[in-house]
Amino acid sequence: MTQLKWWQKAVFYQIYPRSFADGNGDGIGDFPGMIERLDYLQDLGIDAIWLSPHYPSPQYDCGYDVSDYLGIAPEYGTMADFRRFLDGAHQRGIRVILDMVLNHTSHEHPWFIESRSSRDNPKRDWYIWRDSRNGEPPNNWYSAFGGPAWEYDASTGQYYYHYFLKQQPDLNWRNPAVKEAMWKVVRFWLEQGVDGFRLDAIGAIFEDPAMPDHTAKMSQVELYRALRYAKSEEEWSMLLKEQEALYEHQVDQPETHELMRELRTLVEEYPDCVLVGEDDDISYYGDGRNELHLLFNFPLMRTNRLTPAWVRANQEARLSALPPGAWPCNTLGNHDTDRVYSHFSDGRNDAALARLSAALMLTLRGTPFLYYGEEIGMTDFLLRDVRQFRDMLGIITYQVETEILGTPPDEAVVYAARMGRDKCRTPMQWSNAPNAGFSPPGVQTWLPVNPNYAQGVNVADELAHPDSLLNFYRRLLRVRRQTPALISGDYVPLHEEAQDYLAFLRRSPGDHQICLVVLNMSAQSHALTFDLPMSTAHVLFSSRSRENAADDLTHLFIAPFEVYIAEIT
Ligand code: NOJ
User: N or C: which end of the chain has fewer CB within 10 A?
Assistant: First the structure.
């Protein structure tokens, strides 16, 4: 275990700064608020924080449109506050990684303001400008957020390229000056003492330089409509493939690997820094040592039901594809997805399924990433008034629905709330007090608070209840930390035909410790026989009260939805 790097042992916790804790009572999360909650995080038992963007930003994309990479958003605090936060985390043994948005800046970034000021401005080529094609945009590419990927700039008579919103112009990474400027940013934060970066949208950094038209058969709107009415997960996956064709020339260009290698070399000047790519493409691990340290296993969450068969297939595909030396990384939710509790629920066994999701994250091989509020079972909160929407994706969806598809507004808002991301970004629920204790009473929070804080979904109430989800996470995080096999062990699936439960071993190198994990994902109990060289198991964790500390593995009784972790002796 000692040879492992800190980020191989760590459990990460993603903080969305706007929504975590409001220290100054203005309805928006901030650094003073985060500082006050560091003790909570330490007690929870996480090891590292991934901080979503904390930079100044006009907030067209909730901070992923950065207007100053070297600053702190004034609503979040000052550089001194940031320092106190970083030092406070480090004093508690918690590492901090930042979100680094390389692909694009805000349209309000001084670089872009200069770039668009005239065709001969020295920064013109820092972004991607092209002439029109017969009075039309330069090609038929789309923005991933909807509509054309090109925005016309009347004052200079050219179009600029944006893979995301038009307020997020893409940088031209083929210009060495851009690289130099961005590497300065990276060094600046490393000099501040941060422990690494989560790299936003790396797949979109380069585009095909020839800029050929895409040859997809369906238009973006046709695809949208088809996805909207897809009847099965199979149809949905097939359409997602079609969607890939739409962006075929805009992502995953070979030069990205070269760039990631360069960045890796840079960060290796700073001991122990980690790079986590917002991508699931295993090729960004490079040879296992020369590109990114971690890439998210996003395919695991691309289902509505985490069945044993699904998880086994995912693990088999993922783990066998990793290059030697590469380390897996699992997550079930973040600020772009459904909340874990809502996503994998079935409407009947939600509380049990949330525990199984947590157990899966904390027992599979690899570094787990948790999302704030997941530990108390925060759920998606669907806004019913489009005026409350903050996420442009939700707003754009509403517009497409009402203006193009002719969906009645009340129906459109329901769908847009589901497709938008405000649902999973609502303020953290700290207590059963007005505003869930996030902001003082009477303050209007930046997004409405999910009213279920008053039904026990909050930190204070859950801390007081031994059987709460929060205490389940706390216990499990402790067991993980104390159990080397759960951190360093390999993954050996058992009972691979089982439909109801997932069983696997984690064996630490040299078999110093072997753990058996059984996650019963069904309402059926099971009497299991494991044909292993050792037949006794010492229970480390169970979601049920177990009478015996030791179990006979030839007759192991597993209760409905039980999470069972034992050391084999
Ligand atoms: C990925 C981020 O996670 C998402 O929130 C953002 O909208 C896009 N990248 C664009 O930066």
Answer: C
